[in-house]
Amino acid sequence: MKQTVLTRYRVMAYITAVWLLVFTGAIVLKYGFETGDTMVISQIHGVLFIVYVIFAFDLGSKAKWPFGKLLWVLAAGCIPVASFFVEPKISRETQALIDGAAAEPVQA
Predict the structure, then answer these.
(1) Fewest Cβ atoms closer than 10 Å to its Cβ: which of 54, 55, 103, 108?
(2) 104: confidence class by pLDDT, cuts 50, 70, 90
(3) Whole-model pTM?
(4) pLDDT band at 36 (very low <50, low <70, confident <90, very high)
(5) Of all residues in the chain, what percent carry a pLDDT higher than 90?
(6) 68 CB-contact burial (10 Å; exposed 0-12 / middle 13-18 / buried 19+)
(7) With contact defined as beta carbons under 8 Å apart, do 56 and 73 qualify?
(8) Lowest mean pLDDT among 61-65, 75-79, 90-94
(9) What is the rounded distance in angstroms from the CA atom of residue 4 to the CA atom of residue 27?
(10) Contacts of 38 (CB under 8 A, 6+ apart)
(11) What pLDDT is recorded for position 107?
């Protein structure tokens, strides 16, 4: 597994988490204070979430995660602020895999 796979996941996890918070704020403003519109924000978040799912699935398949762990990581993208807690844990675990693979000698 390459470092770029983890980096792509990390970037999209934070971007998606921030947009989910923006979207949540817009929903509160729209329905709580009858102000604003959420159409553009929801569409942007939707596209970003799809990219996040693709990158998380790619990382999970290359790290050989069990299906339950993959669902846990994907669910973190649906819960406001959950990605901020899940992403560092996943990054530490995956970085250890990357470092371990880099330390193994190449067999001829």
Answers:
(1) 108
(2) low
(3) 0.85
(4) confident
(5) 74
(6) exposed
(7) yes
(8) 75-79
(9) 34
(10) 23, 26, 27, 30
(11) 59
Tell me, what amino acid is at 26? A
From the number of C-beta atoms within 10 Å of its C-beta (0-12, 13-18, 19+), residue 103 rates as: exposed
Cβ 44 vs Cβ 19: under 8 Å: yes
Please say if the pLDDT value at position 2 is more than 70: yes
Q: Which two tokens stand for residue 66?
A: 């069990």
DSSP string, the chain: --HHHHHHHHHHHHHHHHHHHHHHHHHHHHHHH-----HHHHHHHHHHHHHHHHHHHHHHHHHT--HHHHHHHHHHTTSTTHHHHHHHHHHHHHHHHHHHHHHSPPP-
CB 53 within 8 A of CB 77: yes
23, with CB counted inside 10 A (0-12, 13-18, 19+), is buried
